[in-house]
Each structure stands twice: as structure tokens, then as C-alpha cells.
Amino acid sequence: MKRIGEINDKIRKGEAIVLTAEEFKQMVRNEETATAESVDVVTCATCAIMSGTAAILSIPVAERNEFERADEVWLNGIPAFPGPCPNERLGIVDVFVYGTARANNLYGGGHLFREIVEGEQIEVKVKTNDRIIERKVSKEDLQFARMITTRSAFKNYMAFVNPKEGKVGSIFSVRGLKGPYKEISVTGSGEINPLENDPLIETIGTGTKIMVNGAAGYVIGEGTRSSKEKPNLSVIADMHEMEAEFMGGFITSTSPECITSIAVPIPVINDEVFSNLKIMDEEIKLPIADIHDRIPFVESNYAAVWQNTDLEIYFNADKCVECDVCDVEKYCPTNAFSKSKGFDEHRCFNCGACIYLCPEDAFKGNLGRIKIYDKEVPITLRQSNRSKANELAKKLKNQIVEKEFLLTEPVAYLR
């Protein structure tokens, strides 16, 4: 039995043994000797589409007494909800912005959040009782910019397939999910997912210090629709310290979605926690649901998604013939490719959509297949980015090793 205070003492002395989930799982696969006493912290992470992401922003838009209060607000065309404080006559507007809100089908809250973090100028439009006030602001102007999630970091998720003829538009597809059983869309980071590695939620609670999009954050509690079987977290973090590469917008066949990344340090406080950390992709169930009703009817496991597959997508410029109409440029969910600028690996989500969009095979990556009854259905879209999640887990590990990040004792446990 180890206490979090004891682990922090070891961190301060530079004696703590800290591993990423990826490193720990490899040790287990290699049958290397490890015990609860020999490992102190395992950093776990997930990077995925998280619809429950939102932001609270405090925006200076005018001088004092210039207007009484804001009735409506838009940021780069995206509707924001002013309040709850009216900030009467202060010239400052507090707003709540949904990650799923949108200006149009190609630009939503996730895009806005990334641009704020990148330091881009944001166009603010405020409707008052008698006029419209417009101003441009950037991150430095925002007195308060905090990201909050109503539900996020699910203990993995599920896959979706269309068992019927035709194509179904959905947030789980880029151009509509083709059937019957032509393709499958998957979500979930598998064995490196934080809640999968602490299924009893023994170490995570209100006040647990975590990392959100590269910035220090905290667990507020369980998120909406969280249950014993399918727990998720509600978290909060300051946007000023976030890193754009871990976040952004993701365009689907029906609406733009929001990418969020969360890393959690799991302190190895006892043998039970250590044992639970040994969970592998092969042991984690992947429910497969009908896209029409989202009800699972069969299951696979996350090994089909993340074992013996490619975590990253590769672009071969020599194979690109610069088609007059490039479907990759048109449909890439994160706008990571254009004929003029080429392939932007910092924007690429490794979703794999480009592999099936490019007729010249300029994009390569083995996404794997999932067996459903007697059919081998190809994975054509991943809405979790395991490579980026590994990167965030490594970033958290490095901060702990460098004594820049200490663990916190929850003020209240979730279970």
C-alpha cells in the first residue's frame, strides 16, 4: 500500500518510476517483471471526438457604459450564450460556447477553440438592445478562458455499422455510413484509456489533477450519463496553457464535432490498482451498434482496432496526381490536406478517411477489419487518435519526471 503523498515525495526526489500506459503494456506483453512496489505512476490518455466539450469565456468588447447588456453573441459566426452574470454596463461579456455549436457545417466550436489557443484573431459580434457591437479579440484579451466538459473520457465507446442498403448520414461518418456492412466506424483508445485502467475508479476523484489538451486541469466529478458500467468524467482546464495539436474541429457528414484530449496519472497505490493496469486491448469489449438506433447487437474487442494496425497515416506525395477535384481535400475532417499546401501532420487526426477517399492510394495505413458474423468489415474511420493520446501520456509522464507535475489527493472519490 502506497499513499499519494509518498509517491509525491519520490517525485520530488527524482526517485519515482513513471511509465506511460504504452510503455507499461509493452512490459506486460514482454512478460517483464514488475510489481506494485516497482512502479509508482502510469500515465493514461485518450484523444477523441468529445461532444460534451464547451468553453467559458470572458470577453472585453467595449468601454464601460457603452451598452447595458448583451442579448446575443457570436464568435466567428458561432452562437454563444451570454451570462449568467449580466455584467451590466461593464463592457465585458461572459459567454458559454458549445464545442458542437456551429457557424455552418464546416466550422464549429472545436475549430473556434483551437483558433483561440493558436492565438488567432476572433471576430466577436454582440447584439444589445439598440445596436450591434463588433470587435476582434485574441487569447491575450480574454480575462478568463476555461474549457469544461459535461461528459468526456468515456471508458471506451463503441463501433457503428449500417446493416441496411444505402447510406446513413451521422456524426460517426465523414460521407455517410454505407451498407449493408460495407464499412465500420470506431471510437475508443482501448488499453491506454484512463478509466479502462482504473475501472473501479479507486484513484480518480473530484480534484484529481490531470492534463487537458496539454494544460493542467482537474476532474470535477462524473459526467452526465455516467454509470457504473460506462463511467465518464467532467473536467476543467485553463485554455491559455493548452496546445492546439491536441484539440480542434472534426467535420462529419452531419455536423462539425470537437476533438479533446485528456491524460490522467494513475498512482499505483496497491496491488488491485496494479492488476487493473494490466488490461489489454484483447480483453476490452468493443460493442458494435446499428447506426440507425445505436443499439449494440454484436461485439468485438479493441485488438481489432489497435493491434497490428497503423496508428498513423502516411502520405506519399509521389503518388498524388493532383486531381481536379480532390476528395481528400474536400472531405478530410480536420482539413489536414490541400493541393496547395500538401499534408499537415499537425492537423491530421489519423482517422484514416483519406485512405478510402484517394483513388491513387497516396495515403497509406492499415486500419484493420472487424468480423461481424461471417463478414470482415473494413474500418474506414477512427474517431479516436491513439498516436496523439500516447503523445499526451508521454508529455504528462515527462512533466512528472521533471517535478513539474505532482499528484493530488481527491477531495471526494467518485465511487
Helix content: 10-25%
**Strand-residue fraction?**
25-35%
Shape: globular
Q: Give the N-terminus to C-terminus distance in angstroms.
A: 19 Å
Uncertain regions spanning at least 5 consecutive residues: none
Radius of gyration: 22 Å
What is the helix tally?
Answer: 9
Total number of beta strands: 30
Please characterize this protein's 3D structure.
The chain has a domain at 55-147. The chain is built from nine helices and 30 strands. Strands 1, 2, 3, 4, 5, 6, 9, 10, 11, 17, 18, 19, 20 and 21 form a 14-stranded mixed sheet that branches. Strands 23-22-12-15-29-28 form a six-stranded mixed sheet. The chain has a two-stranded antiparallel ribbon with strand order 7-8. It is an alpha+beta fold. It has helices at 4-13, 21-29, 109-118, 194-197, 271-276, 303-306, 327-331, 353-357, 386-401, and strands spanning 18-20, 41-49, 53-60, 72-75, 78-82, 92-98, 102-104, 107-108, 122-127, 132-137, 144-149, 159-161, 166-168, 177-179, 184-186, 205-206, 209-212, 215-222, 233-238, 248-251, 256-267, 285-290, 296-301, 314-315, 337-338, 342-343, 363-364, 369-372, 375-382, 412-413. The chain is globular, with a radius of gyration of 22 Å.
